[in-house]
Amino acid sequence: MSKRNGGGAIRIAVAATSAVCRTRLETIIRHQPDFYLAGSFDTVSSIVSFGRNTELDVVVIASDSINDLPPTPVSEAAIVLLTKASDGRSVSRLLRSGVRAILPRASASDELLSAIYAAYDGLVLLSTPIAENLAAIYGDFLPEAEEDLSEEITARETDVLRMLAEGRVNKDIAARLGISEHTVKFHISSILAKLGASTRTEAVTVGIRRGLIPI
Description:
Layout: E1 10-16, H1 19-30, E2 35-41, H2 44-53, E3 58-62, E4 78-82, H3 88-96, E5 99-103, H4 109-120, E6 125-126, H5 128-138, H6 146-150, H7 155-165, H8 170-177, H9 181-195, H10 200-209
Parallel strand pairs: 1-2, 1-3, 3-4, 4-5, 5-6
Helix pairs in contact: 3-5, 7-9, 7-10, 8-9, 9-10
């Protein structure tokens, strides 16, 4: 089990009006060694009440109506939302309200796991169709800055890139940074895209050339 929260697992609560959906979420979470299912509820209001007195890391909510979402955060938990809502303006509003991952209701279990890990580590994860709908609204803003933004490497990505230069594998990087291997893979994919590289070696080469990796 990954060491988190001082030695514990990621504490998760789920809410879904559908018993079938709720059971599926419970099963996925219980079968993941890094996760601890702290509670399961059939309404969002119940999970909000539960969160007031229980420390939670991530809340997974399955809801077709974004109006069902809590008006205030569930403790300090990151929210993973499974929903039909996919239009850009709704997605933008959800992200501003504290939702950290948005996926379709029928997402595969590995997609849900990636979303939970990403939300826990402070990242935002959107399914491709949802991200495209969001980009359709904001993609035309500041077009002259688009190239610069696409090449911006975050501080955490720089840490990962430098460890790649040291020849470290994903498991080692995850342990050094205190994040999951899923999140390391997420960072590496982002680094490759931002640097226009197709392999780790190429990314390191570009990183050295741009001064991101000290030599």
